[in-house]
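Hi L.,

You mentioned the student needs an example of a multi-chain input paired with its predicted structure. This one should do, with 694 residues in total across all chains.
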Amino acid sequence: MIPASLCKKAGMIMTQGLQSIAFEQSPYVVSSASVVGKKEGEGPLGKMFDMVETENLFGEDSWEAAESTMQKEACLLAMGKAHLHKEDVRFLFGGDLLRQGIATSLGVMEFGIPMFGLFGACSTSGEALALASMSVAAGYGDYMLAVTSSHFGSAEKEFRFPLSYANQRPLSAQWTVTGSGAFLVGRKRSHVRITGITVGKIVDFGLKDSQNMGACMAPAAADTIETNLKDFGREPDDYSRIITGDLGYVGQSILFDLMRGKEIDIKKNHIDCGMMIFDQNKQDTHAGGSGCGCAASVLSSYILPKLERGEWKKVLFVPTGALMSTVSFNEGASVPGIAHGIVLEHC
Amino acid sequence: MIPASLCKKAGMIMTQGLQSIAFEQSPYVVSSASVVGKKEGEGPLGKMFDMVETENLFGEDSWEAAESTMQKEACLLAMGKAHLHKEDVRFLFGGDLLRQGIATSLGVMEFGIPMFGLFGACSTSGEALALASMSVAAGYGDYMLAVTSSHFGSAEKEFRFPLSYANQRPLSAQWTVTGSGAFLVGRKRSHVRITGITVGKIVDFGLKDSQNMGACMAPAAADTIETNLKDFGREPDDYSRIITGDLGYVGQSILFDLMRGKEIDIKKNHIDCGMMIFDQNKQDTHAGGSGCGCAASVLSSYILPKLERGEWKKVLFVPTGALMSTVSFNEGASVPGIAHGIVLEHC
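Structure written out for the whole complex:
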């Protein structure tokens, strides 16, 4: 436990436990933007995204370059909404699902913003928001940019088969969202603050099915949600919503089981970005959406506006990631999960 | 520019420029550890590493699992040297070169330390040390763990060919170091402090040769060194050494050319971890060592002891990364670089 005097000095207070930080001077989500592909634009949240590209190559020659372009557009839109320029942003925290994070590196390169490349699988938007808010709260700069993306075409190629192979997908499989979300976190007042974070630890239940990511990630989500409630001394009802990233239908049902085992009932106010972004019946997306861009684009387009309007007062945003690669999968390693918790409040 | 009042409050001062932070209450490198493979143990620094494994699988079944084991061992040794337990570490910042960072995820998983997964190619040790020191200086915790690794076997498989293919390597190619370095950064007094950082931005000179990483990374190193000197108002001579990560022989010569163009002479006090870890003549390593584990293991085994003894007073440690994947390379994308600067001082 950190001595309170020390924490006060740095403009923050610590909660009990090792995983959480409660900011005394909470940073604001100054602005955000979402950029998505055609299918996402046709889904239930279609009208809420800032930019829907009807052509999934985004004018580029490859899926990877398309993903880079999405990140760039999302960052430009977020900065534009806040009337800020790239020179105003002190650090950029970004990541994606591709090997060696090339969608991010090649996407944000031209901004020339000092950057930290991240990898947390589909939890990366939470990781980026955690580090951005820690940096702003510590006084390291007025504005930080957090950005993540995923692309159905590049992700299928990276993790499964090239699209032209037209492989069959089991019903537990999720559909990688083509999308990016960018967030400017800073000191400038807005109507949403990041008041706390719960940094995830890796949780491994020994599952090995890479076509059932929801099941692999649910234990990490349960761990982070339980820890957050304990660290902040809250009940599930204290949150207007507890929002996981992309557990999907299979993962949600496992999460509920796990939480029941902990005697915590989150059924009433739990929603999942992966279950919201597509219409399961009409869009043939099986267990729901997934990917670094899923939680990020839903946070920007759907969650933040509700917080801004005060329709929701306080939410716990918990993007979840499955930590695996084709190599670890082929070598028979299990697929552990990680989930980071971000407390967002209307103000 | 950040108002000084704000920065003072958070226990830090800011320097001019957007990339650097000078810590007022500088965190200490409390302890560190290095774990390397057989070839590294036979090199010029062989006797300085904490652990040299004579069998490169480290008792595991795959190169990837071997790399995970190295990270775990390095973390355990670093914590052991400081007489600390995993529960004492608030956050872990770690990364490696493999797709989706599995060496790190599967390596540090069992510690259960809340973690941030990073990707900065071979610059990741700098990225991890930057975030760890930012977190300690801000008061987010007493101890942070920064760890990175690379493994010749897993890296060849990831980026080039499986070892059994026995491919020919051009003379500009570097030899990926089998090694890991772990660093405990914290408030507990030691004889080395991290007094400042310069966060790198991505620099692209349009080079596309993935077998000449030194050339791809040299522009980023030049940019970060120049920025660091400017931001901190220093001359090259103010540093006992300016130490790049793994530019190797080719990269060093390009770095000198670039610095001459900036009218900065670093020839007298520049050294490169990739040039030190192997004996170029006897070990057939062509342009030198490379990899996330190169700079990290040399920092722990060679650089930190010199700082501890006061033999060196102040060094600028600049690990460099080449941002590419086999996919981006095959698609004809350039290989941009990034380099993070860490100022280490004897105290």
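You could point out the following to them. Chain B has twelve helices and 17 strands. Residues 192-346 of chain B form a domain with the Peroxisomal Thiolase; Chain A, domain 1 fold (CATH 3.40.47.40).

Best wishes,
N.
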